[in-house]
Amino acid sequence: MSDSCPDLSALPPDARTSVRRLRVARGRALALVLGIAGLLAATPAAAECFRYGPAPVTMTGILERHTEPERPGGGAPQTDYFLRLRSAVCAVAGPSDAPGAQARKGVWLVQLVPRAGAPDTLAPRLEHTVRVRGRLLSSSTERHHAPLLLEVEGLDEGG
User: Fold this and answer.
1) Could you state, in order of their start, the residue ranges of all structural domains in the chain?
2) Do residues 61 and 84 make contact, with C-beta atoms less than 8 angstroms apart?
């Protein structure tokens, strides 16, 4: 026998049976604990939910820029900035939100709306992890290329 399993032959038969039952129970308990730990590790965390509206929110992700080709009928190519999130988020619409605001879930990509006339502070940070603060909006037109929009009020590198 191995060193971790002492010889039970010196014990009375009832004691040997009790020790064997304890070993089986310990093995089952360990399997149960490991199984639960595996389930917890495999279960994704609940998505963080944001509210639309005037209160600013902060989101962290990789800054990207996408250019849509020229549209049929003569529209110029369109370049927009996006935030590719670390994990999916959701947005909830309340009664005081704009009529077109829709509840969203499983969102990984957010279109950024820089302030009109503001200097381009986004381009130097392309492909970097950034924290963006701003007002969250629901997409509402064909010009919007992601389910959520974030009007940029502030930007920090890192996250």
Assistant:
1) 1-43, 48-157
2) yes
Helix (H, G, I), strand (E, B) or coil at 112: strand
Q: Name which of 91, 142, 92, 134 is nearest 113 in CA terms.
A: 134
> What is the third-level CATH fold of 48-157?
OB fold (Dihydrolipoamide Acetyltransferase, E2P) (2.40.50)
The pLDDT tens digits along the chain (159 residues) read 445 566 667 777 777 777 677 777 776 666 655 656 655 544 445 678 999 888 899 999 999 998 877 766 777 777 889 999 999 999 988 776 666 778 889 999 999 988 877 667 888 888 999 999 999 988 766 666 788 989 999 988 876
